[in-house]
Amino acid sequence: MVANAALASRFRELAAADAIDLFEGALLVSVLVDPTEDLDAARRAVAELAARVRSAGGARLDALRDVLFEQEGFRGDDDSYDEPSNSSVARVLARRRGMPITLSIVALEVGRLAGMRLTGVGLPGHFVVGGPELGGRYLDPFDGGVVVEPEQLSQRLASIFGGPVALSDELLRPDPPRAILGRVLLNLRRSWERRHRWEEALSALELSGELEPESESLERERGLLLLKCGRNAEAIAALESYAAMAADEDARPVLRLIEALREGPASEQRTPPKVFTLEQARALLPKVKELTADAAERYGRLPGATEEERHALVEKWARELTALGLEIKGLWLVDFDSGAGYYCWKYPEPALDHFHGYDEGFASRIPLA
């Protein structure tokens, strides 16, 4: 199911606006999940909830929490967290269950219609609501609307990643609507990818491309998804487009993949990436360090080597680590997929102490305290 032309056109128009309407954009993603979704019913639902907040009297934050989380029972969906339907705000409004980001979008829209100044704050593996109304605290819609201090948020993230996470002021900055919609689409794409529903994942990626038309990484992802869809000619074209734009170090593995595709089905198949807990990733790190240190040392002893010899050494190192289920993101740079982003390690770091989201890179990683 590639996004139909009408939906893509509507999303392109929304993405081109100077001020993106977050809720309307999220409703269009709902159509991607279910083309028969009644968007007017979703609009009426948030308008009715906002009217109840306005008429409640007293502090608006208290009224919002009472209406959404006490009276209506909005909560996180622990039982089927990763279902594609949890990326649909229309389904979340109907079920009163969802994932952190879609529950937060509901709270943001209801609050906006009720005259509140709220913001969305995207954290690694989690999403909350901030803004002047909260006075430096944060509303957690997934946890039933509890209001928490930054220190409590850090503890919440620690429960997700298996170790403390240092929350900087930069990490707690509000996310703009474009970034929030991009994250919703990324969540939906990953959900479909985990179910091997490659065409649906490609449809989500296409809408992401409307938000970030100049993104090199999305072109690479598009090529890889086209490959999984069995559309090899289109995949090669997309990967060639990416390689022409990317830095040389990033382009090399993609060019090798293109060569393998042209060689046909007898080419080497890589072990698919695994999902690691932080404990599992750290337990594997000594093996990763051993293989990487050995390769880096041998690489350093090749001052007069040809480029082909250097490539052969790096390719052998990459094969050894991908066989362990890891992802290679650069020279001596390794990612462990956590299911919510990547634990990130670069030689010669002594420990695995950093994390970044799926849509971020080495420069955006944060410390695991």
Give a topology summary.
Elements: H1 5-15, H2 22-33, H3 39-55, H4 60-71, E1 75-76, H5 89-95, E2 97-98, H6 100-113, E3 119-123, E4 126-130, E5 138-140, E6 146-148, H7 150-161, H8 177-194, H9 198-211, H10 216-228, H11 232-245, H12 248-263, H13 278-300, H14 307-322, E7 327-330, E8 333-337, E9 342-346, E10 354-356, E11 366-367
Parallel strand pairs: 1-2
Antiparallel strand pairs: 3-4, 5-6, 7-8, 8-9, 9-10, 10-11
Helix pairs in contact: 1-2, 1-9, 2-8, 3-4, 3-5, 3-6, 8-9, 9-10, 10-11, 11-12, 13-14
- Biggest sheet statistics: 5 strands, antiparallel
**Percent of residues in β-strands:** 5-15%
How are helices and strands ordered from N to C? HHHHEHEHEEEEHHHHHHHHEEEEE
Number-wise, the strands total 11
Average pLDDT over all residues: 88
Helix content: 40-55%
Task: Tell me the overall shape.
Answer: globular
Across the major sheet, the strand order is 7-8-9-10-11
Q: Total domains, how many?
A: 3
Return the structural class: alpha+beta
What's the total helix number?
Answer: 14
How would you portray this structure in words?
With 369 residues, this protein is α+β, with helices and mostly antiparallel strands. The protein has three domains: 5-177, no CATH class; 214-269, no CATH class; 278-367, no CATH class. It has 14 helices and eleven strands. A five-stranded antiparallel sheet has the order 7-8-9-10-11, with helices on one face. The protein has a two-stranded parallel ribbon with strand order 1-2. It has a two-stranded antiparallel sheet with strand order 3-4. Strand 5 (138-140) and strand 6 form a beta hairpin. Helix 1 packs antiparallel against helix 2. The model is unreliable at 266-271 (pLDDT under 50).
